[in-house]
Specification:
It is built from eight helices and 15 strands. The chain is an alpha+beta fold and about 350 residues long. α5 links the parallel β11 and β12. The chain starts with 7 loop residues before the first helix and ends in a 5-residue tail after the last helix. It binds 1,6-di-O-phosphono-beta-D-fructofuranose and magnesium ion (MG) (2 copies). The site of 1,6-di-O-phosphono-beta-D-fructofuranose has 11 residues, from β5. Its cofactor is Mg(2+). It catalyses: beta-D-fructose 1,6-bisphosphate + H2O = beta-D-fructose 6-phosphate + phosphate. InterPro entries: FBPase_C_dom, FBPase_class-1, FBPase_N, FBPtase, Fructose_bisphosphatase_AS. It comes from Constantimarinum furrinae.
Length: about 350
């Protein structure tokens, strides 16, 4: 039961019993993420004062220029999750391949794998717009004591045991689920403690905000073009308001609080869209569903997609249930050539 002003530490201990295989490791894992988020938050807040802005000079496996803060956040989370005998492997947007983490005495007996987008919304770092971190946790499926393999990471999203994000915005928050609803905690920077500020978060059933990069409009599938037209029509509770921050975490967070839909569709340029299934779409979809929202690729539930590659991309439709259902309807109609 969530109590107002409860600290994150207290909440984790109090709710540990809810974890299917609770032996304290998942609690310790969430605690490690809490710690790493503080380290990154500290650096984000100093952006502009210290040499943390701009490109780091390398590109990641997706061909994107790594920002200094991408690299910093990646190292901070990997370092904090290592040597705590919880995690046996980490996959990250900023690492070409997964990293094997050994347990006590170099044994491969840690239970969980973590997939992470260390810094989400990289294009906003240098312009002081809110950014985030996204994480997803699974129990390994290969036997304990054997080296972790790609199989442990390529699990469908419906097998996640925990997922969450940190938003570094006007305040810094951790929002996460372990399959028993979604709770949000705000950092009190003066004392470095997270407090339960948003218990039991719920997506409003519908809303009036749509978030999509309309700059790509000409390349969008017909169904998305039709849905955007629908959002802009002077009818019923429309037109909706267009809001697009360009940081998935921030756009999602706003839409979960106010009601709305975020769409990053496939385009003629990017047939699979831009967002990565394993460390962006799966964790956000799990949170959305736990908060009564919905997430699909326009046709299929994101959490039921069988992953095939570590950095694969998927089209992403996510937010208030009725809004996602309406967008999916336009996609189906367009696919049948019944476009408006
Ligand atoms: O600039 P675009 O093409 O609209 O893309 C913005 C989207 O890309 C992202 O920045 C991708 O995430 P990263 O910054 O982690 O690579 C999302 O946060 C955001 O929603
Ligand atoms: Mg991202
Ligand atoms: Mg990123």
């Amino acid at each position: 039961m969530a109590k107002q002003n409860q600290t994150l530490g207290e909440f984790i201990i109090e709710n540990q019993g809810e974890f299917k295989y609770s032996s304290g490791e998942l609690s310790r894992l969430i605690n490690s993420i809490r710690l790493a988020a503080k380290v990154v938050n500290h650096e984000v807040n100093k952006a502009g004062l210290v040499d943390i802005l701009g490109a780091a000079g390398d590109t990641n496996i997706q061909g994107e220029d790594q920002q200094k803060l991408d690299v910093y956040a990646n190292e901070a989370f990997i370092k904090t999750l290592t040597n705590r005998e919880i995690v046996c492997g980490i996959a990250s947007e900023e690492e070409d391949d997964f990293i094997t983490i050994k347990g006590r005495n170099e044994l491969n007996d840690n239970k969980y794998v973590v997939l992470i987008d260390p810094l989400d919304g990289s294009s906003n770092i240098d312009v002081n717009v809110s950014v985030g971190t996204i994480f997803s946790v699974y129990r390994r499926i290969t036997p304990s004591g054997t080296p972790v393999t790609l199989e442990d990471f390529l699990q469908p999203g419906n097998r996640q045991v925990a997922a969450g994000y940190i938003v570094y915005g006007t305040s810094t928050m951790i929002v996460y689920t372990t399959g028993h609803g979604v709770n949000g905690f705000t950092l009190n920077p003066a004392i470095g403690t997270y407090y339960l500020s948003h218990p039991n978060m719920k997506f409003p059933e519908t809303g009036s905000i749509y978030s999509v990069n309309e700059g790509n409009y000409v390349h969008f599938p017909q169904g998305v073009k039709d849905y955007i037209k629908y959002c802009q029509q002077e009818e019923e509770d429309r037109p909706y308001t267009s809001r697009y921050i360009g940081s998935l975490v921030s756009d999602f967070h706003r839409n979960m609080i106010k009601g709305g839909i975020y769409i990053y569709p496939n385009t003629s340029k990017n047939p699979d869209g831009k967002l990565r299934l394993l460390y962006e779409c799966n964790p956000m979809a799990y949170i959305a569903e736990q908060a009564g929202g919905k997430a699909s690729n326009g046709f299929k539930r994101i959490l039921d997609i069988e992953p095939t590659e570590l950095h694969q991309r998927v089209p992403f439709f996510c937010g208030s249930k009725r809004m996602v259902e309406t967008a999916e309807e336009f996609m189906r109609k367009a696919e049948k050539g019944e476009s408006n």
